């Protein structure tokens, strides 16, 4: 959205200097054409647009460029859409007959029932008989391939607060049918709670058979780090037909499922598929769903993925249950090395610039605050200590398991968290939303619960994939280049080692960092390579920093790598965050963190990120590890981290160490 300031004499109902905001490229062009008509007694019309905002619509941005040829730009706007819009337009072109329905920006909830079509006859045009006295078909469309049917219905329902037949509620519902000819499966979506799907199927695909039971639960297969949130079971016990289980209860039900003492009724969970966090729900009655909504073409793509799993006879649904993440309630914190601690997911989903941490004397936005594990000794196994770090200092916090699935938080000083206009004590916030703790076995702690994978992640990283740099002339005991650009530091050496490989390099070292170094390469304005480099120093012993095989030299740097992967779920936000951090530094009179490129380059990358493809990378740089001396313990910790990062993001870990 771009505010446009019109500069001219009063014309066509618009006053000189009036601020007008247009979201649509079509409306903006139409309005511009009308407004800029000239006559002999009126001067030339001008307008001034804000093009510095990276959220300006890309089509408008092209028009606003200095010396742009509007004729050429307008003709090429359709080819410059973001990928999702472009894909939808290609899908839209499959429907040659006009339809108001497809122009409404449909975003159906992601759900379906599935039918086998082996002996059925596909007759989508017969849907016209679906109407009745209670509802009528309002709009409909079938694509040219005759495999997709979309229609809406309007129902008149009696209101609940009167018995009169003169008053009715008007209700609209959407129906979608997609026939996957390649796999001979029919998918039906209905937004109506009491949708007459069976009736529709009899009309358009007579003799189709619904997929139910164990076949439906195959849709859970293939999800990495699957966390089951609720499991409903039908049990063969007197007085207990159906039971719902959550959390640690789910683990206890798996033996009954394996022994056929209980049958799966409904399951919902979340996991990672193709490097993205997804949700999936299944019911033995035949429904499959996700907690999401999307465009029609994306709904069809999702259905195809579900269909392939349903037809895969190699999938054992009981094995899927067994390999899901397990949950245990903690009486005390496990004796497993902790790698990192991070803000709870509830915070990460919000706009961090609108969240701040405050004390009686200072206030800092969350974007410049980070959580770190504490080095302070802990004697109580029920307690863990961590730090809130920002430019105002390190603030000690402890979290203690107090039983009843709860934790108690205590702070060394009184701190509050402000989210929007609401302010809460940070202790109360963490008790309600505990921070996430990453452990070396790839398990996670969330409050009084530990979530751990069933499979063993104790495999070694391939030493042949490790890069060994020559650190001659570098003081490997000095990690950060600081604002003084220390030329003998690990970070400075890393930046200059990669300087010629990227278009923009950003020193993000400090509280709230994405990584110590963020490097971006722009390939033809349609592909961005984004690599995160996490640097660590070598501690001195006897006044000397000597590379070796100490496993402690691995923990912190791999923890930083695991924390940073969260940014890959929203690449545009990653670049916008760099912009906000740079703005904040310059506003406070500090030096720029951009090591190569300019702020204008960064803003341009933010605009490109809306439609570009991405190639992502994560690297750990630790000269304290010697490739010649690297130990199995070090390789095992790195290997577990590499597996974790690959599963949740699809990104391969790069490891850079010493000779």
Describe this structure in words.
- The chain has 16 helices and 38 strands.
- It is of the alpha+beta class.
- Helix content is 24%, strand content 34%.
- The chain folds into five domains: 2-80, no CATH class; 91-210; 216-324, no CATH class; 331-452, no CATH class; 463-658, Restriction Endonuclease (3-Layer(aba) Sandwich), CATH 3.40.91.
- Helix 13 (552-564) packs parallel to helix 16.
- Mean pLDDT is 86; it is low at 1-20, 65-69 and 71-81.
Question: Any key phrases for this structure?
Answer:
659 residues, alpha+beta, 5 domains, eleven-stranded antiparallel beta sheet, seven-stranded mixed beta sheet, 24% helix, disordered N terminus
Question: What secondary-structure arrangement, pairings included, does this model have?
Answer:
Elements lengths: L1 E6 L11 E4 L2 H11 L10 E4 L8 H7 L5 H7 L6 H10 L16 E8 L4 E2 L12 E8 L5 E11 L9 E13 L4 E6 L6 H8 E2 L2 E2 L3 H4 L6 E14 L2 E6 L3 H10 L3 E12 L2 E8 L3 E7 L2 H15 L6 H7 L2 E4 L8 E5 L2 H4 L6 E4 L4 E3 L4 E4 L9 E8 L2 E11 L2 E6 L4 E4 L2 E4 H7 L3 E4 L4 E3 L2 E4 L14 E2 L21 H9 L5 E4 L9 E7 L3 E9 L4 E2 L2 E2 L6 H13 L6 H17 L6 E3 L2 H10 L4 E14 L5 H18 L3 E6 L1
């Amino acid at each position: 959205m771009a505010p446009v300031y019109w500069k001219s004499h009063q014309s066509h109902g618009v006053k000189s200097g009036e601020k007008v905001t247009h979201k649509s490229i079509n409306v903006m062009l139409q309005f511009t054409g009308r407004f800029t008509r000239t006559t002999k007694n009126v001067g030339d019309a001008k307008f001034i647009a804000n093009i510095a905002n990276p959220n300006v619509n890309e089509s408008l941005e092209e028009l606003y460029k200095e010396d742009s040829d509007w004729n050429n730009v307008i003709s090429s706007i359709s080819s410059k859409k973001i990928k999702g819009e472009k894909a939808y337009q290609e899908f839209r072109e499959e429907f040659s007959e006009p339809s108001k329905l497809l122009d409404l920006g449909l975003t159906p909830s992601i759900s379906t029932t599935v039918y086998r079509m082996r002996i059925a006859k596909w007759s989508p045009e017969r849907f016209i008989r679906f109407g009745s006295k209670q509802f009528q078909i309002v709009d409909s469309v079938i694509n040219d391939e005759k495999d997709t049917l979309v229609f809406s219905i309007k129902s008149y329902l009696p209101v609940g607060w009167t018995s009169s037949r003169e008053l009715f509620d008007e209700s609209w519902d959407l129906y979608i049918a997609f026939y996957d000819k390649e796999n001979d499966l029919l998918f039906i979506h209905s937004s109506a709670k009491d949708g007459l799907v069976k009736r529709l199927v009899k009309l358009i695909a007579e003799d189709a058979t619904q997929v139910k039971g164990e076949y439906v639960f195959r849709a859970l297969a293939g999800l990495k780090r699957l966390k089951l949130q609720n499991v409903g079971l039908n049990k063969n016990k007197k007085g207990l037909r159906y039971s719902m289980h959550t959390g640690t209860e789910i683990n206890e039900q798996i033996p009954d499922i394996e022994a056929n003492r209980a049958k799966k009724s409904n399951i919902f969970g979340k996991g990672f598929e193709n490097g993205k966090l997804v949700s999936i729900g299944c019911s033995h009655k035949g429904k499959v769903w996700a907690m999401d909504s999307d465009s029609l073409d994306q709904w069809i793509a999702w259905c195809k993925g579900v269909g392939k799993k349903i037809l895969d006879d190699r999938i054992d649904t009981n094995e899927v249950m067994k390999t899901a993440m397990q949950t245990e309630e903690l009486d005390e914190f496990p004796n497993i090395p902790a790698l990192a601690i991070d803000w709870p997911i509830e915070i990460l989903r919000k706009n961090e610039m609108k969240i701040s941490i405050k004390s009686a004397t200072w206030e800092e936005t969350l974007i410049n605050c980070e959580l770190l594990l504490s080095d302070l000794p802990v004697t109580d196994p029920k307690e863990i200590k961590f730090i809130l770090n920002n430019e105002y200092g390190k603030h000690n916090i402890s979290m203690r398991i107090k039983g009843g699935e709860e934790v108690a938080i205590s702070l060394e000083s009184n701190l509050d968290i402000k989210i929007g206009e609401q302010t809460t004590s940070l202790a109360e916030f963490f008790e309600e939303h505990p921070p996430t703790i990453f452990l070396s076995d790839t398990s996670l702690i969330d409050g009084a619960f530990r979530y751990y994978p069933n499979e063993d992640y104790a495999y070694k990283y391939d030493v042949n994939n490790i890069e060994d740099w020559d650190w001659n002339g570098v003081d490997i005991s000095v990690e950060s280049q600081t604002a003084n650009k220390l030329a003998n530091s690990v970070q400075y050496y890393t930046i200059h080692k990669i300087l010629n490989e990227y278009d923009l390099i950003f020193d993000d070292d400090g509280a709230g960092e994405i990584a110590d170094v963020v490097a971006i390469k722009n390939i033809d304005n349609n592909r961005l390579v984004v690599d995160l480099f996490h640097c660590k120093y070598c501690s001195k012993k006897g006044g000397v920093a000597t590379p070796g095989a100490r496993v402690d030299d691995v923990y912190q740097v791999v923890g930083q790598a695991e924390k940073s992967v969260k940014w890959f779920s929203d690449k545009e936000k990653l670049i916008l965050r760099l912009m906000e951090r740079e703005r904040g530094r310059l506003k406070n009179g500090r030096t720029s963190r951009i090591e190569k490129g300019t702020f204008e380059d960064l803003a341009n990358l933010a605009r490109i990120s809306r439609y570009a493809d991405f190639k992502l990378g994560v690297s750990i740089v630790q000269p304290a590890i010697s490739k010649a001396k690297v130990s199995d313990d070090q390789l095992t910790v790195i290997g577990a981290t590499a597996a974790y990062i690959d599963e949740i993001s699809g990104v391969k870990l790069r490891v850079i160490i010493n000779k």
